[in-house]
Design brief:
It contains eight helices and no strands. With 243 residues, the protein is an all-alpha fold. Helix 3 packs parallel to helix 7, helix 4 runs antiparallel to helix 7 and helix 4 crosses helix 8.
């Protein structure tokens, strides 16, 4: 290959033409490592509903489409697929109930049977304690500085200065309490806003899951019902074809 490149260079150099070299990329074979093998299982798990659907249909075909299969076997296989398809409806309803926090059908049935009037019940006595908080209030007091029993101009001015200082202290304390109350109200409003946002997101996710989350279950049921109806309806024709 180097000899061909040199000859090409000589020809180009002799004719005065420009020569452009084209590089060739050689792909290396992909190596199967342990990390690639470990990543294979999660990749397969992502399509678990498809594997479930195809596995059940493949098992039904293996039973019903064998040579010399009788018509009742084909029809009963289709019936089983139809029942499985109807079962996916119950599966989807259970998923929706669990999404909104409702108990399952088995729990509801157990609770209903447990309330049978003729059953013997164990009476459980319970005691509860209740605590009541006393109402609390806030009181404010303030003091003033008087000029004394025999006030003079100096004592009056001194009392006024002290009263002004006390007024400033009261104003500062009131402003501090107002600032604290404002900060508490702001924090409470912010927490309430975050709580409402979280609840809105949760409701939105539940509505989205209710509208689109059960599509895979519906697809599974539709596939099983489709094959089951074909096997049950055309059982005689399929049995004649397999003879």
């Amino acid at each position: 290959m180097a000899l061909v490149a040199v000859r090409g260079f000589r020809r180009a150099f002799g004719t005065g033409k420009s020569l452009s070299f084209v590089g060739r990329h050689r792909e290396e074979p992909m190596l199967i490592t342990a990390s690639r093998i470990k990543g294979l299982w999660p990749w397969l798990i992502e399509a678990r509903f498809a594997w479930l659907t195809l596995g059940v249909i493949a098992a039904a075909f293996a039973i019903a489409l064998r040579p010399h299969t009788t018509e009742p076997v084909i029809r009963l296989t289709g019936l089983v697929l139809q029942l499985l398809g109807i079962g996916t409806v119950i599966w989807g309803i259970s998923e929706t109930r669990a999404l909104f926090g409702h108990p399952s059908f088995s729990a509801k049935a157990k609770s209903w049977l447990g309330r049978f009037p003729l059953l013997k019940r164990n009476i459980v006595l319970g005691a509860a304690a209740c605590t009541m908080a006393a109402a609390t209030g806030k009181m404010r007091g303030y003091v003033t500085q008087g000029p004394g029993p025999d006030p003079t101009l100096v004592t009056r001015v001194d009392a006024l200065e002290k009263n002004v200082a006390l007024i400033h202290e009261r104003i500062t304390g009131t402003e501090k309490e107002m600032d604290e109350g404002f900060h508490k109200a702001t924090a409470a409003l912010k927490n309430e806003e975050q709580t409402r946002q979280t609840e809105d997101n949760s409701i939105r996710e539940k509505l989205e899951a209710t509208g689109t989350g059960g599509v895979h279950i519906s697809a599974i049921g539709a596939s099983w019902l489709f094959v089951g109806v074909i096997l049950s309806t055309a059982g005689i024709e399929i049995a004649e074809f397999l003879k």
